[in-house]
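Take a record:
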Amino acid sequence: MRSASAITTVVLTPPEAMELWRSVDRWSTFVEGFARPLQVAEEWPEKGARVVWESNPDGRGRVTETVTENAPERFSTQVFEDALMGTQTFRAAPASDGAEVELSLEYELVKYGPLRGLADAIFIRRALRDALRRTLFRFEIEAEEEARLR
């Protein structure tokens, strides 16, 4: 498995950060490339629930996420898309000024044939890490707005 991750601190408490992360209707404000949900299971975000979403035209295409873990401090989904499959995990832990949040993706490439290792090392891992960082940067802004509203 390959991996990419990003970490930041937000002004929300860990439970508030987890609540914001699990809110599919808010994903368009912070998830990199998110355009619109296509299907959201009624039981979302419970274990086994699934969401199917579409990215913007330059993005990942159709993405399916199925909840594999929904704990107070950790939320994981099995991710399937055109180029990769893997497990995405969002963690929130107490910090002196809110919550330290980490977004990680453990993945396998399903494209690129025998050159997938080289493609990952040169292009993909960095692009994924940058996308995770941009997502958390926007999540931090959204968390600040959420804290102002509370």
Summary: The mean pLDDT is 94.
